[in-house]
Amino acid sequence: MTVTGQKKISIYDPATGTVVQLNNISEEGEFEKKGAFIKTSAGSRMYSGDESKAEFLSLDWTGYDQLVTWMKERTPVRFVTYGLDEHILWYEDTLITVDLKTVFSPYKRSGFKIYFEKAGGVHEIYKGANLLYKAKGWKDVDTSNKADNYIINTSGGSFTFLFQNGMQKISCVTDGNLTFAATLVYPISGITLNLFQRFGVDNNIIQDQYTYIKDFGGSPLTNVHGPRSNVLSATSPANVYTFELYLINANYSMVSGNIIQIYSPYLGLASTILEILY
């Protein structure tokens, strides 16, 4: 299936944090993720796992030798893309295939193709506009009344939690501290992403949201913060590896009676909260 509008791709080794970023790729590539099925002896179809594949043409030779080394040494890698509208998060260890140099007519431009393919099991591979929603979801599958895949920690005091109709509600019963965050591996430098959240009627909560951008070792490279009611823009510097997103500042001190209500948060290119959230 053709995928359009992809501008940059970063291929990385999750074991070492080594990243190859290609900044000039053809806007048309191939991407597909689907379920695979086999026939049983009874003639019915049985799910046998996911099948995912991706193909991109790079006109940027930066890091070509490293990609070939990964291919020859059979190093498992992953990749993420940055697109005009949608982005791809390929969070599965996969062997890469790199084509040799190709010359394209009529402008005699040279480039190479890269391929990724994986079959079997349930794949952590996503495509969409909202990076947070695709990578983390916004559900409570384990019925803990806390949004799955988010860091929701408390210290001191006591709190009650409710996740209902797409809203996370946190109520402070006795004074204590709250952290509400998510970490996203997205090692693409020189791009700007917007964080915003829709929230209900909070009770006496006056606190910023934060985006921390860190390197592979977890050292902070930069951070920005601003009111939770605003769109928060952050531009990634060199050596970026993760985006650490706090929907409310870490270890925020809450007092009895404080209430926080958050609907699906967003990280992507949209510039207003009225735009698509998924």
Would you write up a description of this structure?
By secondary structure, this protein is mainly beta. The protein folds into 2 domains: 2-128, Pnp Oxidase, Chain A (Roll), CATH 2.30.110; 138-268, Sandwich (Jelly Rolls), CATH 2.60.120. 5% of the residues lie in helices and 54% in strands. The protein contains 2 helices and 22 strands. The protein has helices at 64-72, 131-136, and strands spanning 2-4, 6-12, 19-22, 28-39, 45-58, 77-83, 87-94, 96-98, 102-104, 109-119, 125-128, 151-155, 158-164, 167-174, 176-185, 192-196, 208-214, 220-227, 232-235, 242-254, 259-263, 266-268.
What is this entry, summarized?
The protein has helices spanning 64-72, 131-136, and strands at 2-4, 6-12, 19-22, 28-39, 45-58, 77-83, 87-94, 96-98, 102-104, 109-119, 125-128, 151-155, 158-164, 167-174, 176-185, 192-196, 208-214, 220-227, 232-235, 242-254, 259-263, 266-268. By secondary structure, it is mostly beta strands.
Per DSSP, the total helix count is 2
**Alpha-carbon distance between the termini?**
21 Å
Question: Could you name the ranges where pLDDT drops below 50 across 5 or more consecutive residues?
Answer: none
Oligomer: single chain
Give the SSE map.
Elements: E1 2-4, E2 6-12, E3 19-22, E4 28-39, E5 45-58, H1 64-72, E6 77-83, E7 87-94, E8 96-98, E9 102-104, E10 109-119, E11 125-128, H2 131-136, E12 151-155, E13 158-164, E14 167-174, E15 176-185, E16 192-196, E17 208-214, E18 220-227, E19 232-235, E20 242-254, E21 259-263, E22 266-268
Antiparallel strand pairs: 1-4, 2-3, 2-6, 4-5, 5-10, 6-7, 7-11, 8-10, 9-10, 12-15, 13-14, 14-21, 15-20, 16-19, 16-22, 17-18, 17-20
